[in-house]
Amino acid sequence: xxxxxxxxxxxxxxxxxxxxxxxxxxxxxxxxxxxxxxxxxxxxxxxxxxxxxxxxxxxxxxxxxxxxxxxxxxxxxxxxxxxxxxxxxxxxxxxxxxxxxxxxxxxxxxxxxxxxxxxxxxxxxxxxxxxxxxxxxxxxxxxxxxxxxxxxxxxxxxxxxxxxxxxxxxxxxxxxxxxxxxxxxxxxxxxxxxxxxxxxxxxxxxxxxxxxxxxxxxxxxxxxxxxxxxxxxxxxxxxxxxxxxxxxxxxxxxxxxxxxxxxxxxxxxxxxxxxxxxxxxxxxxxxxxxxxxxxxxxxxxxxxxxxxxxxxxxxxxxxxxxxxxxxxxxxxxxxxxxxxxxxxxxxxxxxxxxxxxxxxxxxxxxxxxxxxxxxxxxxxxxxxxxxxxxxxxxxxxxxxxxxxxxxxxxxxxxxxxxxxxxxxxxxxxxxxxxxxxxxxxxxxxxxxxxxxxxxxxxxxxxxxxxxxxxxxxxxxxxx
Length: 479
Ligand code: BG6
What we know:
Blueprint: E1 9-13, H1 16-19, H2 65-79, E2 83-87, H3 90-93, H4 104-119, E3 123-129, H5 135-141, H6 148-163, E4 170-174, H7 186-193, H8 203-228, E5 233-239, E6 243-245, H9 250-259, H10 261-272, H11 277-286, H12 296-302, E7 307-311, E8 316-318, E9 338-339, H13 355-369, E10 373-377, H14 395-413, E11 419-422, E12 445-447, E13 459-461, H15 463-473
The chain binds 6-O-phosphono-beta-D-glucopyranose.
6-O-phosphono-beta-D-glucopyranose binds at residues 15, 18, 175-176, 239, 311, 377, 381, 425, 432-435, 440.
Protein backbone atom coordinates (compact mmCIF):
# COMPACT_ATOMS: atom_id res chain seq x y z
CA UNK A 1 0.00 0.00 0.00
CA UNK A 2 1.22 3.46 -0.82
CA UNK A 3 2.52 5.20 2.26
CA UNK A 4 1.27 8.65 1.41
CA UNK A 5 -2.20 9.70 0.32
CA UNK A 6 -2.55 10.20 -3.43
CA UNK A 7 -3.53 13.83 -2.79
CA UNK A 8 -0.41 14.55 -0.75
CA UNK A 9 0.56 18.16 -1.42
CA UNK A 10 4.09 18.05 -2.77
CA UNK A 11 5.16 21.57 -3.56
CA UNK A 12 7.53 24.43 -3.03
CA UNK A 13 7.50 27.39 -0.65
CA UNK A 14 8.37 31.05 -1.15
CA UNK A 15 7.54 34.46 0.30
CA UNK A 16 6.64 37.55 -1.71
CA UNK A 17 9.23 39.79 -0.07
CA UNK A 18 12.08 37.38 -0.74
CA UNK A 19 11.52 36.64 -4.41
CA UNK A 20 9.04 38.94 -6.13
CA UNK A 21 11.18 42.07 -6.38
CA UNK A 22 9.31 44.88 -8.12
CA UNK A 23 9.26 46.67 -4.77
CA UNK A 24 8.01 49.90 -6.34
CA UNK A 25 6.07 48.44 -9.27
CA UNK A 26 2.33 48.19 -9.70
CA UNK A 27 1.57 50.76 -7.01
CA UNK A 28 3.23 48.72 -4.26
CA UNK A 29 4.05 50.54 -1.01
CA UNK A 30 7.12 49.99 1.14
CA UNK A 31 7.08 47.11 3.60
CA UNK A 32 9.15 46.47 6.71
CA UNK A 33 11.51 44.40 4.57
CA UNK A 34 12.18 47.23 2.12
CA UNK A 35 14.29 49.05 4.71
CA UNK A 36 16.44 46.05 5.61
CA UNK A 37 19.99 45.97 4.28
CA UNK A 38 21.97 42.82 3.53
CA UNK A 39 23.97 41.19 6.32
CA UNK A 40 25.79 37.87 6.48
CA UNK A 41 26.36 34.97 8.87
CA UNK A 42 27.43 36.69 12.09
CA UNK A 43 26.62 40.21 10.79
CA UNK A 44 23.08 41.40 11.43
CA UNK A 45 20.91 43.11 8.82
CA UNK A 46 20.37 46.78 9.49
CA UNK A 47 16.90 48.32 9.65
CA UNK A 48 17.22 51.84 8.28
CA UNK A 49 14.80 54.71 8.84
CA UNK A 50 14.17 55.24 5.13
CA UNK A 51 15.83 53.94 1.98
CA UNK A 52 19.40 55.26 1.94
CA UNK A 53 21.10 55.74 -1.44
CA UNK A 54 24.44 54.20 -0.46
CA UNK A 55 22.97 51.02 1.02
CA UNK A 56 21.94 47.77 -0.61
CA UNK A 57 18.44 46.38 0.00
CA UNK A 58 18.32 42.88 -1.49
CA UNK A 59 14.55 42.46 -1.17
CA UNK A 60 13.87 45.35 -3.56
CA UNK A 61 14.66 43.19 -6.57
CA UNK A 62 14.42 39.70 -5.06
CA UNK A 63 14.85 37.44 -8.06
CA UNK A 64 12.53 39.59 -10.20
CA UNK A 65 9.68 37.09 -10.17
CA UNK A 66 7.36 40.09 -10.59
CA UNK A 67 8.50 40.40 -14.19
CA UNK A 68 9.38 36.73 -14.85
CA UNK A 69 6.55 34.84 -13.22
CA UNK A 70 5.51 33.00 -16.38
CA UNK A 71 8.97 31.53 -16.87
CA UNK A 72 9.23 30.54 -13.20
CA UNK A 73 5.79 28.99 -12.93
CA UNK A 74 6.47 27.00 -16.10
CA UNK A 75 9.55 25.59 -14.35
CA UNK A 76 7.48 24.74 -11.26
CA UNK A 77 5.05 22.95 -13.56
CA UNK A 78 7.90 21.03 -15.17
CA UNK A 79 9.19 20.03 -11.73
CA UNK A 80 5.77 18.50 -11.11
CA UNK A 81 4.76 20.65 -8.12
CA UNK A 82 1.20 20.03 -6.96
CA UNK A 83 1.09 23.18 -4.89
CA UNK A 84 2.98 26.40 -4.39
CA UNK A 85 3.03 28.09 -1.04
CA UNK A 86 3.64 31.81 -1.38
CA UNK A 87 2.41 34.99 0.27
CA UNK A 88 0.45 38.00 -0.82
CA UNK A 89 2.49 41.15 -0.29
CA UNK A 90 0.18 43.22 1.92
CA UNK A 91 1.72 46.40 0.42
CA UNK A 92 0.63 45.50 -3.12
CA UNK A 93 -2.97 45.48 -1.92
CA UNK A 94 -2.88 48.26 0.69
CA UNK A 95 0.35 50.19 0.00
CA UNK A 96 0.26 52.07 3.32
CA UNK A 97 -1.99 49.67 5.14
CA UNK A 98 -4.59 52.19 6.31
CA UNK A 99 -6.34 52.97 3.01
CA UNK A 100 -10.03 52.20 2.72
CA UNK A 101 -9.81 50.97 -0.89
CA UNK A 102 -7.40 48.35 -2.21
CA UNK A 103 -4.96 48.84 -5.07
CA UNK A 104 -6.51 47.13 -8.09
CA UNK A 105 -3.18 46.64 -9.85
CA UNK A 106 -1.92 44.62 -6.89
CA UNK A 107 -5.02 42.45 -6.81
CA UNK A 108 -4.69 41.89 -10.54
CA UNK A 109 -1.08 40.77 -10.13
CA UNK A 110 -2.15 37.93 -7.83
CA UNK A 111 -5.03 37.06 -10.17
CA UNK A 112 -2.38 36.56 -12.84
CA UNK A 113 -0.16 34.48 -10.56
CA UNK A 114 -3.01 32.28 -9.35
CA UNK A 115 -4.34 31.76 -12.89
CA UNK A 116 -0.89 30.87 -14.13
CA UNK A 117 -0.46 28.33 -11.31
CA UNK A 118 -3.86 26.78 -11.98
CA UNK A 119 -2.94 26.46 -15.65
CA UNK A 120 -0.28 23.94 -14.55
CA UNK A 121 -2.59 22.31 -11.97
CA UNK A 122 -0.56 23.82 -9.16
CA UNK A 123 -2.72 24.51 -6.13
CA UNK A 124 -2.00 27.93 -4.60
CA UNK A 125 -1.41 27.84 -0.83
CA UNK A 126 -1.36 31.40 0.44
CA UNK A 127 0.15 33.03 3.51
CA UNK A 128 -1.58 36.28 4.38
CA UNK A 129 1.42 37.83 6.04
CA UNK A 130 4.96 36.62 5.58
CA UNK A 131 6.91 39.45 7.25
CA UNK A 132 5.37 42.02 4.88
CA UNK A 133 3.65 44.64 7.00
CA UNK A 134 3.36 48.07 5.35
CA UNK A 135 6.20 50.27 6.65
CA UNK A 136 3.68 53.04 7.31
CA UNK A 137 1.84 50.86 9.83
CA UNK A 138 5.11 50.07 11.58
CA UNK A 139 6.35 53.66 11.72
CA UNK A 140 3.14 55.58 12.29
CA UNK A 141 1.17 53.11 14.38
CA UNK A 142 3.87 51.06 16.09
CA UNK A 143 2.86 47.89 14.25
CA UNK A 144 0.94 45.29 16.22
CA UNK A 145 1.46 47.19 19.47
CA UNK A 146 -1.50 49.15 18.23
CA UNK A 147 -4.91 47.53 18.16
CA UNK A 148 -5.89 49.60 15.09
CA UNK A 149 -3.47 47.55 13.05
CA UNK A 150 -5.64 44.53 13.79
CA UNK A 151 -8.48 46.21 11.87
CA UNK A 152 -6.19 47.01 8.96
CA UNK A 153 -4.97 43.47 8.80
CA UNK A 154 -8.50 42.10 8.86
CA UNK A 155 -9.52 44.48 6.07
CA UNK A 156 -6.61 43.20 4.01
CA UNK A 157 -7.52 39.58 4.77
CA UNK A 158 -11.18 40.11 3.86
CA UNK A 159 -10.22 41.82 0.62
CA UNK A 160 -8.05 38.98 -0.60
CA UNK A 161 -10.39 36.26 0.69
CA UNK A 162 -13.22 37.84 -1.30
CA UNK A 163 -11.15 38.37 -4.40
CA UNK A 164 -9.68 34.85 -4.62
CA UNK A 165 -12.45 32.88 -2.94
CA UNK A 166 -13.22 30.76 -6.00
CA UNK A 167 -9.61 29.97 -6.85
CA UNK A 168 -7.80 29.42 -3.56
CA UNK A 169 -8.65 26.90 -0.87
CA UNK A 170 -5.62 26.72 1.46
CA UNK A 171 -4.63 29.73 3.55
CA UNK A 172 -2.48 30.44 6.57
CA UNK A 173 -2.51 33.62 8.65
CA UNK A 174 0.94 34.76 9.91
CA UNK A 175 4.21 33.17 8.89
CA UNK A 176 6.26 31.81 11.81
CA UNK A 177 4.20 33.81 14.27
CA UNK A 178 6.21 32.37 17.16
CA UNK A 179 9.73 33.24 16.07
CA UNK A 180 9.34 36.70 17.60
CA UNK A 181 9.47 35.03 21.02
CA UNK A 182 13.19 35.50 20.50
CA UNK A 183 13.46 39.18 21.40
CA UNK A 184 17.27 39.05 21.48
CA UNK A 185 17.36 39.63 17.72
CA UNK A 186 15.43 42.80 16.74
CA UNK A 187 14.62 41.55 13.25
CA UNK A 188 12.01 39.07 14.50
CA UNK A 189 9.70 41.57 16.22
CA UNK A 190 10.24 43.97 13.34
CA UNK A 191 9.45 41.62 10.50
CA UNK A 192 6.62 39.78 12.22
CA UNK A 193 4.93 42.73 13.86
CA UNK A 194 6.49 46.03 12.78
CA UNK A 195 7.73 46.62 16.30
CA UNK A 196 10.94 48.21 17.59
CA UNK A 197 11.79 48.28 21.28
CA UNK A 198 12.74 51.34 23.31
CA UNK A 199 15.71 50.86 25.63
CA UNK A 200 13.71 51.17 28.82
CA UNK A 201 11.04 48.69 27.80
CA UNK A 202 10.67 45.16 29.08
CA UNK A 203 10.90 43.23 25.78
CA UNK A 204 8.81 40.40 27.16
CA UNK A 205 5.91 42.60 28.23
CA UNK A 206 5.86 44.34 24.84
CA UNK A 207 6.05 40.96 23.12
CA UNK A 208 2.98 39.57 24.90
CA UNK A 209 0.89 42.67 24.14
CA UNK A 210 1.90 42.43 20.49
CA UNK A 211 1.21 38.71 20.58
CA UNK A 212 -2.26 39.24 21.96
CA UNK A 213 -3.15 41.72 19.22
CA UNK A 214 -1.76 39.41 16.57
CA UNK A 215 -3.59 36.39 17.96
CA UNK A 216 -6.80 38.42 17.77
CA UNK A 217 -5.97 39.43 14.19
CA UNK A 218 -5.32 35.80 13.26
CA UNK A 219 -8.55 34.58 14.88
CA UNK A 220 -10.64 37.32 13.25
CA UNK A 221 -9.13 36.47 9.86
CA UNK A 222 -10.01 32.79 10.32
CA UNK A 223 -13.63 33.63 11.23
CA UNK A 224 -14.02 36.08 8.33
CA UNK A 225 -12.48 33.62 5.92
CA UNK A 226 -14.87 30.85 6.93
CA UNK A 227 -17.80 33.24 6.53
CA UNK A 228 -16.66 34.21 3.04
CA UNK A 229 -16.12 30.63 1.94
CA UNK A 230 -16.87 27.77 4.33
CA UNK A 231 -14.75 25.50 2.15
CA UNK A 232 -11.60 27.46 2.89
CA UNK A 233 -9.04 25.51 4.90
CA UNK A 234 -7.24 28.00 7.13
CA UNK A 235 -4.24 27.21 9.28
CA UNK A 236 -1.65 29.00 11.36
CA UNK A 237 2.07 28.82 10.66
CA UNK A 238 4.77 28.32 13.26
CA UNK A 239 8.47 27.80 13.30
CA UNK A 240 9.31 24.62 15.14
CA UNK A 241 12.84 24.21 16.45
CA UNK A 242 12.42 21.49 19.08
CA UNK A 243 14.35 22.10 22.28
CA UNK A 244 15.91 18.91 23.61
CA UNK A 245 17.13 18.39 27.16
CA UNK A 246 20.90 17.95 27.25
CA UNK A 247 20.69 14.84 29.43
CA UNK A 248 18.38 12.71 31.55
CA UNK A 249 19.17 14.91 34.52
CA UNK A 250 15.65 15.89 35.65
CA UNK A 251 16.78 19.51 35.80
CA UNK A 252 17.64 19.40 32.09
CA UNK A 253 14.29 17.80 31.33
CA UNK A 254 12.45 20.53 33.21
CA UNK A 255 14.59 23.21 31.57
CA UNK A 256 13.60 21.93 28.13
CA UNK A 257 9.94 21.60 29.12
CA UNK A 258 9.84 25.25 30.18
CA UNK A 259 11.88 26.48 27.21
CA UNK A 260 9.52 24.70 24.80
CA UNK A 261 6.74 27.03 25.91
CA UNK A 262 8.43 29.57 23.66
CA UNK A 263 7.52 27.32 20.76
CA UNK A 264 4.02 26.42 21.90
CA UNK A 265 2.55 29.63 23.27
CA UNK A 266 1.15 30.89 19.94
CA UNK A 267 -0.15 27.56 18.61
CA UNK A 268 -1.63 26.70 22.02
CA UNK A 269 -3.89 29.74 21.65
CA UNK A 270 -4.50 29.42 17.92
CA UNK A 271 -5.51 25.78 18.19
CA UNK A 272 -7.37 25.72 21.52
CA UNK A 273 -8.87 29.21 21.45
CA UNK A 274 -7.70 30.24 24.92
CA UNK A 275 -4.52 31.08 26.78
CA UNK A 276 -2.53 28.26 28.40
CA UNK A 277 -2.18 28.28 32.20
CA UNK A 278 1.61 28.71 32.11
CA UNK A 279 1.22 32.02 30.24
CA UNK A 280 -1.49 33.42 32.55
CA UNK A 281 0.60 32.50 35.58
CA UNK A 282 3.64 34.19 34.09
CA UNK A 283 1.68 37.41 33.35
CA UNK A 284 0.46 37.40 36.95
CA UNK A 285 3.89 36.78 38.47
CA UNK A 286 5.60 39.39 36.33
CA UNK A 287 2.82 41.94 36.78
CA UNK A 288 2.23 42.20 33.02
CA UNK A 289 -0.81 44.25 32.17
CA UNK A 290 -1.87 42.88 28.80
CA UNK A 291 -4.64 45.04 27.32
CA UNK A 292 -7.58 42.87 26.55
CA UNK A 293 -10.84 44.11 25.03
CA UNK A 294 -14.30 42.90 25.85
CA UNK A 295 -15.18 40.08 23.51
CA UNK A 296 -11.58 38.92 22.97
CA UNK A 297 -12.28 35.56 24.62
CA UNK A 298 -15.02 34.91 22.10
CA UNK A 299 -12.87 36.03 19.19
CA UNK A 300 -10.12 33.59 20.15
CA UNK A 301 -12.59 30.79 20.71
CA UNK A 302 -14.33 31.30 17.36
CA UNK A 303 -11.19 31.74 15.27
CA UNK A 304 -9.28 28.52 15.89
CA UNK A 305 -7.26 27.06 13.05
CA UNK A 306 -7.97 23.88 11.09
CA UNK A 307 -4.45 22.72 10.45
CA UNK A 308 -0.94 23.54 11.60
CA UNK A 309 1.60 24.58 9.04
CA UNK A 310 5.16 24.71 10.24
CA UNK A 311 8.76 25.19 9.24
CA UNK A 312 11.39 22.77 10.38
CA UNK A 313 15.08 23.30 9.76
CA UNK A 314 16.93 22.25 12.92
CA UNK A 315 16.79 21.34 16.59
CA UNK A 316 18.48 22.78 19.62
CA UNK A 317 19.49 21.69 23.13
CA UNK A 318 19.34 23.27 26.59
CA UNK A 319 21.34 22.48 29.71
CA UNK A 320 20.10 23.76 33.03
CA UNK A 321 23.38 24.86 34.58
CA UNK A 322 24.90 26.36 31.45
CA UNK A 323 24.96 30.07 30.75
CA UNK A 324 26.12 30.97 27.26
CA UNK A 325 25.93 34.40 25.71
CA UNK A 326 23.03 35.26 23.46
CA UNK A 327 25.53 36.18 20.72
CA UNK A 328 26.78 32.59 20.73
CA UNK A 329 23.28 31.37 20.26
CA UNK A 330 21.82 33.48 17.51
CA UNK A 331 20.70 30.49 15.51
CA UNK A 332 19.22 28.77 18.53
CA UNK A 333 16.48 31.23 19.22
CA UNK A 334 18.63 33.28 21.58
CA UNK A 335 18.20 30.73 24.38
CA UNK A 336 20.67 31.72 27.08
CA UNK A 337 21.46 28.13 28.01
CA UNK A 338 21.59 26.32 24.72
CA UNK A 339 24.53 24.08 23.94
CA UNK A 340 25.71 22.22 20.87
CA UNK A 341 24.33 18.78 20.26
CA UNK A 342 27.33 16.41 20.12
CA UNK A 343 25.43 13.96 17.88
CA UNK A 344 24.56 16.44 15.15
CA UNK A 345 26.43 18.22 12.36
CA UNK A 346 25.72 21.80 11.36
CA UNK A 347 25.40 23.64 8.06
CA UNK A 348 27.81 26.41 7.05
CA UNK A 349 25.38 28.80 8.72
CA UNK A 350 25.43 26.86 11.99
CA UNK A 351 21.99 25.25 11.57
CA UNK A 352 21.91 21.77 13.15
CA UNK A 353 21.01 19.08 10.61
CA UNK A 354 18.62 16.71 12.37
CA UNK A 355 16.18 14.69 10.24
CA UNK A 356 15.04 12.57 13.21
CA UNK A 357 14.01 15.84 14.82
CA UNK A 358 11.42 16.24 12.08
CA UNK A 359 9.76 12.92 12.90
CA UNK A 360 9.92 13.89 16.55
CA UNK A 361 8.34 17.28 15.78
CA UNK A 362 5.55 15.71 13.75
CA UNK A 363 4.75 13.42 16.66
CA UNK A 364 4.92 16.15 19.29
CA UNK A 365 2.68 18.52 17.33
CA UNK A 366 0.20 15.85 16.33
CA UNK A 367 -0.07 14.40 19.80
CA UNK A 368 -0.48 17.83 21.38
CA UNK A 369 -3.06 19.19 18.92
CA UNK A 370 -4.59 16.30 16.94
CA UNK A 371 -4.87 18.48 13.84
CA UNK A 372 -3.57 17.82 10.33
CA UNK A 373 -0.02 19.07 9.88
CA UNK A 374 1.61 20.63 6.84
CA UNK A 375 5.40 20.95 6.49
CA UNK A 376 5.55 24.22 4.60
CA UNK A 377 9.27 24.89 5.01
CA UNK A 378 12.24 22.60 5.20
CA UNK A 379 15.50 22.77 3.33
CA UNK A 380 19.21 23.21 3.23
CA UNK A 381 20.72 26.65 2.74
CA UNK A 382 24.18 26.37 1.24
CA UNK A 383 26.43 27.65 -1.52
CA UNK A 384 26.34 26.06 -4.98
CA UNK A 385 29.10 25.49 -7.54
CA UNK A 386 28.68 25.14 -11.29
CA UNK A 387 30.57 22.21 -12.81
CA UNK A 388 32.48 22.68 -16.04
CA UNK A 389 29.62 21.26 -18.06
CA UNK A 390 27.28 23.95 -16.69
CA UNK A 391 25.36 21.70 -14.28
CA UNK A 392 25.02 21.94 -10.51
CA UNK A 393 25.46 18.75 -8.54
CA UNK A 394 23.82 19.66 -5.22
CA UNK A 395 24.06 16.23 -3.62
CA UNK A 396 24.22 17.65 -0.09
CA UNK A 397 20.85 19.34 -0.60
CA UNK A 398 19.38 16.14 -2.02
CA UNK A 399 20.67 14.19 0.98
CA UNK A 400 19.17 16.70 3.39
CA UNK A 401 15.77 16.64 1.70
CA UNK A 402 15.78 12.85 1.31
CA UNK A 403 16.47 12.22 4.99
CA UNK A 404 13.79 14.69 6.06
CA UNK A 405 11.22 13.24 3.68
CA UNK A 406 12.05 9.74 4.96
CA UNK A 407 11.44 10.92 8.48
CA UNK A 408 8.12 12.49 7.49
CA UNK A 409 6.99 9.29 5.80
CA UNK A 410 7.89 7.33 8.94
CA UNK A 411 5.75 9.71 10.99
CA UNK A 412 2.81 9.00 8.68
CA UNK A 413 3.37 5.32 8.07
CA UNK A 414 4.57 4.20 11.49
CA UNK A 415 3.27 6.82 13.90
CA UNK A 416 -0.10 7.61 12.32
CA UNK A 417 0.45 11.34 11.92
CA UNK A 418 -1.97 13.14 9.60
CA UNK A 419 0.32 15.01 7.20
CA UNK A 420 -1.13 17.13 4.38
CA UNK A 421 1.97 17.91 2.41
CA UNK A 422 5.59 18.91 2.13
CA UNK A 423 6.87 22.07 0.45
CA UNK A 424 10.65 22.58 0.54
CA UNK A 425 11.66 26.15 1.32
CA UNK A 426 12.98 28.38 -1.43
CA UNK A 427 12.18 25.99 -4.24
CA UNK A 428 14.00 28.50 -6.44
CA UNK A 429 16.96 30.49 -5.02
CA UNK A 430 15.79 33.62 -3.21
CA UNK A 431 17.08 36.23 -0.77
CA UNK A 432 17.76 34.79 2.68
CA UNK A 433 15.50 36.12 5.41
CA UNK A 434 17.92 36.21 8.33
CA UNK A 435 21.02 37.39 6.48
CA UNK A 436 19.73 38.97 3.26
CA UNK A 437 22.31 36.98 1.30
CA UNK A 438 21.79 35.27 -2.04
CA UNK A 439 24.57 32.78 -1.52
CA UNK A 440 22.62 30.94 1.17
CA UNK A 441 20.75 29.00 -1.46
CA UNK A 442 17.88 26.58 -0.87
CA UNK A 443 16.68 26.33 -4.45
CA UNK A 444 16.24 23.36 -6.72
CA UNK A 445 16.53 25.99 -9.43
CA UNK A 446 19.59 28.23 -9.43
CA UNK A 447 19.29 31.97 -10.01
CA UNK A 448 22.31 33.89 -11.26
CA UNK A 449 22.50 36.68 -8.71
CA UNK A 450 25.09 37.34 -6.01
CA UNK A 451 25.11 38.97 -2.59
CA UNK A 452 25.77 42.40 -4.05
CA UNK A 453 22.93 42.19 -6.56
CA UNK A 454 25.06 41.35 -9.65
CA UNK A 455 24.13 38.65 -12.15
CA UNK A 456 21.97 37.92 -15.16
CA UNK A 457 19.10 36.36 -13.13
CA UNK A 458 19.28 33.34 -15.46
CA UNK A 459 17.52 30.25 -14.09
CA UNK A 460 19.32 26.85 -14.16
CA UNK A 461 17.90 23.52 -12.99
CA UNK A 462 20.07 21.85 -10.34
CA UNK A 463 20.34 18.05 -9.99
CA UNK A 464 17.88 18.29 -7.10
CA UNK A 465 15.26 19.55 -9.57
CA UNK A 466 15.23 16.21 -11.39
CA UNK A 467 15.48 14.24 -8.17
CA UNK A 468 12.47 16.00 -6.60
CA UNK A 469 10.48 15.62 -9.83
CA UNK A 470 10.85 11.85 -9.47
CA UNK A 471 9.99 11.95 -5.75
CA UNK A 472 6.73 13.66 -6.63
CA UNK A 473 6.00 11.31 -9.55
CA UNK A 474 6.44 8.27 -7.30
CA UNK A 475 4.61 9.94 -4.37
CA UNK A 476 7.67 9.49 -2.20
CA UNK A 477 8.22 5.81 -3.02
CA UNK A 478 11.53 6.54 -4.76
CA UNK A 479 13.83 8.70 -2.74
C1 BG6 B 1 11.99 30.93 7.91
C2 BG6 B 1 11.21 31.94 7.15
O1 BG6 B 1 12.44 31.58 9.05
O2 BG6 B 1 13.15 30.39 7.42
C3 BG6 B 1 11.71 32.19 5.75
O3 BG6 B 1 9.83 31.72 7.15
C4 BG6 B 1 13.22 32.04 5.69
O4 BG6 B 1 11.25 33.45 5.35
C5 BG6 B 1 13.58 30.62 6.09
O5 BG6 B 1 13.78 32.38 4.48
C6 BG6 B 1 15.04 30.29 6.01
O6 BG6 B 1 15.79 31.27 6.66
P1 BG6 B 1 17.02 31.95 5.93
O7 BG6 B 1 17.46 33.01 6.83
O8 BG6 B 1 18.01 30.89 5.74
O9 BG6 B 1 16.48 32.49 4.64
